[in-house]
Design brief:
heterodimer, A: mainly beta, OB fold (Dihydrolipoamide Acetyltransferase, E2P), three-stranded antiparallel β-sheet, B: alpha/beta, nine-stranded mixed β-sheet, 14 helices, globular
């Protein structure tokens, strides 16, 4: 990985900020400049939308063969998380053993280190998800 | 629009070609196709080459010009360009070549596909292939390409109750066919146990649910159908060439158990060719992961949603069954040099329709369909081919 590609000011990545189309009301994450449903009618009108960070696991996998930068994390859990606001999000699930994960499990977003450029390289940050114990105990 | 036919086809063996470079492979396949068509380099008016990522795999871009140069076409100064649509680059190049001939702009067009993938270590290859997904919002967070396939598989199993054993039948069939194809990367049979007990890549996909990293190239020569018989006694008509896209990220899609791009490209292809699924004699389905083949078969109308594994269980998918599936061995056993794959699938159908497929020959094959996808079923490209 190279610095300019991933070391930018990315509020959306750090804070789970998506966009909402004011025409049809659909919420998008990651943010979009154009609503795929409303097209030009939405151009220039998309509004920022703060996600709650809550969600449920829609699907998941345990990754044993990694992309670059994840060698020391494997095996790790990747999931697609369904949020109550609508968008689904791809992220790691942490603070839990792989065999405890299941579809439908409530999770919440946390701010974590994602990966780093080698031993002394730039550290990249973003969101991961952890089990939402409060929801789980309900 | 004019009807378009394939008048020549050729491919290299797929596998680990440590003694051959990107250009060696492309030129070998291209020249085989020219020889098969009985034409000379100077007859070619344009060239389209499918290639996903030579820039990353071997540090070579400007692949179109390089191929034309080393295929001996420099002096003719014809247009030659590389077409990229991830793992569907090959079929995308054929779609471009089809448009070029159908439109009347060119008559004789060479379409190729090539990838040289085995020059790099595994994690680098995994990283390059992940470029077919969303680098910023999927891969950055640790998603590999097989991880995306695995999440489709997990959701599919959750919704329909398919088991890992049932999913394992697809690579077993692929290897059975690969064993009959002298050009396949893997020419040996495997069992359900081999699939279940092989190394886990991304749970529930083991390495045997995933296509291999292969080198290879494939090529076809296109001509207007009306003059095709001037070149060959057995021209193959391209009855449909269709292409549809959907959201690049899995998380942007409503469903993980169907591919709207495959559904759309399939519908258009059947309409264009005036065919239905029951008219298709054999298929080459994109099986980069077993789950993609399963969803592909369903979304193209060969099985009800959630039931593709029944075709495998009933033995229908063998080359001598009711729906011959991936007689070449498919991406799983024939191999998956990503840029070549889409063209290679078509080369297999051409061989089958000409009755030149040897031990894996499908009896009485008249109409074949290829399904090549780029990304995690993001781009779907369908070709329907038939005997003229």
């Amino acid at each position: 990985m190279v610095v300019p590609r991933f070391w930018r000011e990315r509020r959306h990545r750090y804070s789970l900020i998506g966009t909402q189309c004011p025409v049809c009301g659909t919420v998008y994450f990651p943010p979009r400049n154009v609503c795929p449903k409303c097209g030009r009618k939405s151009l220039g009108k998309m509004e920022e939308f703060q996600l709650s960070g809550k969600g449920k696991i829609y699907s998941y996998t345990i990754v044993h063969q990694n992309v670059l930068g994840y060698k020391y994390q494997k095996p790790y859990i990747m999931a697609i998380i369904e949020t109550p606001e609508g968008p689904k999000i791809t992220a790691q699930i942490v603070d839990i053993e792989p065999e405890e994960v299941h579809i439908g499990m409530p999770v919440r977003a946390v701010f974590r280190r994602i990966t780093e450029d080698g031993k002394a390289g730039i550290i990249q940050y973003g969101y991961k998800f952890v089990p939402d114990w409060e929801e789980l105990e309900k | 629009m004019r009807d378009v036919a394939i008048i020549g086809a050729g491919e290299t063996k797929y596998g680990e070609h440590w003694d051959k470079s990107l250009r060696d492979l492309a030129v070998e396949a291209g020249l085989k196709a020219l020889e098969d068509a009985g034409i000379y380099a100077e007859d070619i008016q344009a060239m389209f080459g499918g290639n996903m990522s030579a820039g990353s795999f071997v540090g070579q871009d400007h692949v179109g010009a390089l191929m034309a140069d080393f295929a001996g076409l420099t002096e003719t100064m014809i247009p030659a360009m590389r077409i990229e649509s991830a793992c569907a680059s090959g079929a995308a190049a054929l779609h471009a070549g089809y448009m070029a001939v159908a439109s009347g702009l060119y008559d004789i067009v060479l379409v190729g596909g090539v990838e040289k993938m085995t020059d790099l270590p595994g994690d680098m290859v995994t990283d390059i292939l992940a470029g077919a997904a969303d680098r910023e919002w999927e891969v950055f967070f640790g998603a590999t390409f097989p991880a995306l396939g695995a999440m489709m598989a997990r959701r599919y199993m959750y919704e329909f109750g398919m088991t890992r054993e049932q999913m394992a039948l697809f690579p077993v069939i692929a290897h059975k066919h690969g064993a009959l194809n002298p050009d396949a990367h893997f020419q040996r049979e495997i069992t359900v146990d081999t699939v279940l007990n092989s190394a886990m890549v991304a749970d529930p996909l083991t390495i045997m649910n995933c296509s291999p990293v292969s080198d290879g190239a494939a090529a076809v020569v296109l001509a207007p159908a009306e003059i095709a018989r001037k070149y060959t006694d057995s021209p193959i008509k391209i009855s449909a060439s269709t292409f549809a896209n959907e959201y690049i990220s899995l998380h942007s899609r409503e469903s993980l158990v169907r591919s709207v791009s495959t559904i759309e490209a399939g519908k258009k292809a059947y309409r264009m060719a005036k065919k239905e699924p029951k008219d298709i004699d054999l298929v080459e389905i994109h099986d980069a992961f077993s789950i993609i083949a399963i969803i592909g078969l369903e979304d193209l109308g060969f099985a009800k949603k959630g039931e593709a594994h029944k075709l495998a269980e009933e033995g229908q998918l063998y080359y001598d069954g009711d729906l011959p599936y991936n007689p070449s061995g498919g991406l799983k056993a024939k191999g998956h040099p990503v840029g070549a794959t889409g063209v290679g699938q078509v080369v297999e159908i051409v061989k089958q329709l000409r009755n030149e497929a040897g031990k894996r020959q499908v009896e009485d094959a008249k109409v074949g369909l290829t399904h090549n996808v780029g990304g995690i079923m993001t781009s779907s490209i369908i070709h329907i081919l038939e005997v003229m």
